[in-house]
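From the pipeline queue, job 12 of 40. The input is one protein chain; the requested action is below.

Action: predict structure.
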Amino acid sequence: MPTSEACEPRAPEPNGCPITLAAEPIGSSTKPRRFLPEIIAGMAVVAIFGLPSLAFPFGIDQGQQDAIGRLMADGLVLYRDIWDNRSPLLYVMAALGHLVGLNGMMGLRVADLLYQTATAGLLALLVMRTTSLRGAGFLAAAFYGWTYYGQSHNLSTCQPDGRLALFIVGALLLLEGSK
Protein backbone atom coordinates (compact mmCIF):
# COMPACT_ATOMS: atom_id res chain seq x y z
CA MET A 1 0.00 0.00 0.00
CA PRO A 2 1.47 3.41 -0.93
CA THR A 3 2.25 5.90 1.78
CA SER A 4 -0.04 8.84 2.32
CA GLU A 5 2.65 11.28 1.11
CA ALA A 6 2.64 9.70 -2.37
CA CYS A 7 -1.14 9.80 -2.76
CA GLU A 8 -3.35 12.55 -4.01
CA PRO A 9 -6.41 13.32 -1.86
CA ARG A 10 -8.43 10.15 -2.12
CA ALA A 11 -11.03 8.24 -0.18
CA PRO A 12 -9.82 4.87 1.19
CA GLU A 13 -11.48 1.65 0.09
CA PRO A 14 -12.41 -0.94 2.70
CA ASN A 15 -9.25 -2.92 1.84
CA GLY A 16 -7.02 0.12 2.38
CA CYS A 17 -6.31 0.91 -1.27
CA PRO A 18 -7.14 4.45 -2.35
CA ILE A 19 -10.03 5.26 -4.70
CA THR A 20 -9.46 8.18 -7.01
CA LEU A 21 -12.08 10.90 -6.91
CA ALA A 22 -11.52 11.87 -10.55
CA ALA A 23 -14.53 12.93 -12.62
CA GLU A 24 -13.55 10.76 -15.59
CA PRO A 25 -15.98 8.06 -16.70
CA ILE A 26 -15.21 4.48 -15.72
CA GLY A 27 -13.05 2.84 -18.35
CA SER A 28 -12.15 6.13 -20.02
CA SER A 29 -9.06 6.27 -22.17
CA THR A 30 -6.71 9.15 -22.80
CA LYS A 31 -7.87 9.25 -26.43
CA PRO A 32 -10.57 11.95 -26.78
CA ARG A 33 -13.97 10.76 -27.95
CA ARG A 34 -15.99 12.55 -30.53
CA PHE A 35 -19.45 12.79 -29.02
CA LEU A 36 -21.23 14.87 -31.62
CA PRO A 37 -21.40 12.39 -34.56
CA GLU A 38 -22.77 9.62 -32.33
CA ILE A 39 -25.30 11.96 -30.70
CA ILE A 40 -26.48 13.32 -34.05
CA ALA A 41 -26.81 9.79 -35.45
CA GLY A 42 -28.91 8.73 -32.45
CA MET A 43 -31.11 11.81 -32.75
CA ALA A 44 -31.57 11.16 -36.48
CA VAL A 45 -32.78 7.62 -35.79
CA VAL A 46 -35.32 8.94 -33.28
CA ALA A 47 -36.50 11.55 -35.77
CA ILE A 48 -36.95 8.83 -38.41
CA PHE A 49 -38.84 6.62 -35.93
CA GLY A 50 -41.04 9.62 -35.07
CA LEU A 51 -41.89 10.78 -38.60
CA PRO A 52 -45.01 8.58 -38.88
CA SER A 53 -46.36 10.18 -35.68
CA LEU A 54 -46.76 13.47 -37.56
CA ALA A 55 -49.79 11.94 -39.27
CA PHE A 56 -51.43 10.78 -36.04
CA PRO A 57 -54.77 12.46 -35.31
CA PHE A 58 -55.58 14.10 -32.01
CA GLY A 59 -56.87 12.06 -29.14
CA ILE A 60 -58.79 13.68 -26.29
CA ASP A 61 -55.63 14.46 -24.30
CA GLN A 62 -53.83 16.03 -27.24
CA GLY A 63 -56.86 18.14 -28.13
CA GLN A 64 -57.02 19.45 -24.55
CA GLN A 65 -53.31 20.24 -24.58
CA ASP A 66 -53.62 22.16 -27.82
CA ALA A 67 -56.79 24.05 -26.83
CA ILE A 68 -55.53 25.03 -23.37
CA GLY A 69 -52.08 25.91 -24.73
CA ARG A 70 -53.71 28.14 -27.37
CA LEU A 71 -55.86 29.88 -24.76
CA MET A 72 -52.84 30.43 -22.51
CA ALA A 73 -50.88 31.83 -25.45
CA ASP A 74 -53.81 34.23 -25.98
CA GLY A 75 -53.43 35.46 -22.39
CA LEU A 76 -55.84 33.39 -20.32
CA VAL A 77 -54.54 32.05 -16.99
CA LEU A 78 -54.53 28.36 -16.16
CA TYR A 79 -56.60 27.41 -13.09
CA ARG A 80 -58.26 30.82 -13.07
CA ASP A 81 -59.70 31.18 -16.58
CA ILE A 82 -59.14 27.61 -17.81
CA TRP A 83 -59.33 24.44 -15.77
CA ASP A 84 -57.83 20.99 -16.11
CA ASN A 85 -56.52 18.76 -13.35
CA ARG A 86 -53.07 18.17 -14.85
CA SER A 87 -49.90 19.93 -13.83
CA PRO A 88 -49.15 23.28 -15.50
CA LEU A 89 -45.89 22.36 -17.23
CA LEU A 90 -47.70 20.41 -19.94
CA TYR A 91 -49.83 23.43 -20.83
CA VAL A 92 -46.97 25.92 -20.51
CA MET A 93 -45.04 23.84 -23.05
CA ALA A 94 -48.10 23.76 -25.36
CA ALA A 95 -48.51 27.54 -24.99
CA LEU A 96 -44.84 28.07 -25.84
CA GLY A 97 -45.37 25.94 -28.93
CA HIS A 98 -48.23 28.20 -30.00
CA LEU A 99 -46.12 31.29 -29.41
CA VAL A 100 -43.41 30.00 -31.77
CA GLY A 101 -45.89 28.92 -34.44
CA LEU A 102 -46.39 25.23 -33.63
CA ASN A 103 -50.19 25.36 -33.84
CA GLY A 104 -52.85 22.69 -34.06
CA MET A 105 -52.44 18.99 -34.53
CA MET A 106 -49.29 19.17 -36.65
CA GLY A 107 -47.70 21.71 -34.34
CA LEU A 108 -48.25 19.54 -31.27
CA ARG A 109 -46.83 16.49 -33.07
CA VAL A 110 -43.79 18.43 -34.32
CA ALA A 111 -43.15 19.76 -30.80
CA ASP A 112 -43.36 16.21 -29.42
CA LEU A 113 -40.92 14.99 -32.06
CA LEU A 114 -38.52 17.80 -31.12
CA TYR A 115 -38.81 16.94 -27.40
CA GLN A 116 -38.17 13.25 -28.03
CA THR A 117 -35.24 13.95 -30.35
CA ALA A 118 -33.69 16.29 -27.76
CA THR A 119 -34.26 13.69 -25.04
CA ALA A 120 -32.48 11.08 -27.16
CA GLY A 121 -29.54 13.45 -27.68
CA LEU A 122 -29.19 14.10 -23.96
CA LEU A 123 -29.52 10.38 -23.22
CA ALA A 124 -26.79 9.58 -25.75
CA LEU A 125 -24.53 12.18 -24.14
CA LEU A 126 -25.22 10.81 -20.66
CA VAL A 127 -24.38 7.27 -21.73
CA MET A 128 -21.26 8.37 -23.59
CA ARG A 129 -20.00 10.29 -20.55
CA THR A 130 -20.47 7.29 -18.28
CA THR A 131 -19.06 4.50 -20.45
CA SER A 132 -16.21 4.03 -22.88
CA LEU A 133 -18.11 1.57 -25.06
CA ARG A 134 -18.18 2.75 -28.67
CA GLY A 135 -21.69 3.14 -30.02
CA ALA A 136 -23.35 2.97 -26.60
CA GLY A 137 -24.73 6.52 -26.86
CA PHE A 138 -26.16 5.83 -30.30
CA LEU A 139 -27.75 2.59 -29.09
CA ALA A 140 -29.24 4.29 -26.03
CA ALA A 141 -30.81 6.99 -28.23
CA ALA A 142 -32.07 4.44 -30.75
CA PHE A 143 -33.53 2.21 -28.02
CA TYR A 144 -35.24 5.24 -26.48
CA GLY A 145 -36.75 6.18 -29.84
CA TRP A 146 -37.90 2.63 -30.47
CA THR A 147 -39.45 2.46 -27.00
CA TYR A 148 -41.28 5.76 -27.44
CA TYR A 149 -42.35 5.52 -31.09
CA GLY A 150 -42.00 1.86 -32.01
CA GLN A 151 -44.84 0.70 -29.79
CA SER A 152 -47.06 3.78 -29.88
CA HIS A 153 -50.16 5.13 -31.55
CA ASN A 154 -51.97 8.47 -31.60
CA LEU A 155 -53.20 8.23 -27.99
CA SER A 156 -49.85 7.30 -26.41
CA THR A 157 -47.68 10.10 -27.82
CA CYS A 158 -47.76 13.77 -26.78
CA GLN A 159 -48.36 12.76 -23.17
CA PRO A 160 -46.92 14.34 -20.00
CA ASP A 161 -44.65 11.38 -19.22
CA GLY A 162 -43.00 11.67 -22.62
CA ARG A 163 -42.33 15.35 -22.05
CA LEU A 164 -40.94 14.72 -18.57
CA ALA A 165 -38.28 12.38 -19.93
CA LEU A 166 -36.40 15.42 -21.30
CA PHE A 167 -36.15 16.96 -17.84
CA ILE A 168 -35.32 13.68 -16.11
CA VAL A 169 -32.46 12.90 -18.48
CA GLY A 170 -31.27 16.51 -18.21
CA ALA A 171 -31.21 16.24 -14.42
CA LEU A 172 -29.30 12.95 -14.59
CA LEU A 173 -26.79 14.57 -16.93
CA LEU A 174 -26.27 17.40 -14.45
CA LEU A 175 -25.89 14.91 -11.63
CA GLU A 176 -23.32 12.90 -13.58
CA GLY A 177 -21.41 16.05 -14.44
CA SER A 178 -21.20 17.13 -10.81
CA LYS A 179 -19.03 14.14 -9.82
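Job complete. The first strand starts at residue 11 and ends at 12.
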